[in-house]
Amino acid sequence: MSQIHVRAQAGDVAEYVLLPGDPHRARHIAQTYLEDATLYAEHRQLLGFTGTYQGVPVSVQTTGMGCPSAAIVAEELARLGAKTLIRVGTLGGAAPRVRPADLVIATAAVPNDGTTRQLLGGAPYAPAASFEVVEASVQAARAAGVAHHAGLVMTEDAFYASTPEHARLWASRGVLGFEMEASAIFLVAAQHGLRAGCLTTCSNDIGDPQLVPEEVLANGVDRMVRVALEAVVRLHRAARA
């Protein structure tokens, strides 16, 4: 049956789903990288498309901004038959070595958000990406010659609350950057026995109000999406080996 927010039917959504926050990015990914992409959902601008990449069925589903929306979408995708969820988006860099347009592959997310706290009843928890997804993503990046960082990110609710001091403090604890959806996606996926991952492109350094130039960011997003799709192909082949 159709879900409340992702108004799709069982069979509309592929086992592998890329999760951008922005509906325009979802449409761009579907039209640019997938073959025979069709729109299956558009309620509340949560655009969803399914097509194929190198013969592998792949969906691209908008999550919206922040953990509350991302958690709803992840929950409903699980009910619709998705098996692997991979966030593709942007993050603000915390560590000086993470430069604008760099690819960051998250291994886990510090859950500095309210959604995971409510879902867990305040219990301590470490939302982590699935090892297979991280491994496939790193392998895909290396095969494509894409420079990347793999490590810890922090998920936060308040986009404008982060300061350079806050960023450097958490960088000293191993955090590469800040984003707004990964912890909820990792947790909901774990609750449903799904695999999850998160690939992000660095849009700016925390504290710098200027984003990377549009064309530079677009190139970074292109690299990120291609790595994510190649990771999907690797996961698909491994599952059938």
UniProtKB/TrEMBL annotation:
One of its GO terms (cellular component) is cytosol. It catalyses: uridine + phosphate = alpha-D-ribose 1-phosphate + uracil. It is an enzyme of class 2 (transferase). The lineage of its organism: Bacteria, Thermotogati, Deinococcota, Deinococci, Deinococcales. Belongs to the PNP/UDP phosphorylase family. One of its GO terms (molecular function) is uridine phosphorylase activity. CDD domains: PNP_ThPNP_like (cd17765). This is Uridine phosphorylase. Its EC number is 2.4.2.3. It holds the Pfam family PNP_UDP_1. InterPro entries: Nucleoside_phosphorylase_CS, Nucleoside_phosphorylase_d, Nucleoside_phosphorylase_sf. Keywords: Glycosyltransferase, Transferase. GO terms for biological process: nucleoside catabolic process. Residues 16-228 form the Nucleoside phosphorylase domain.
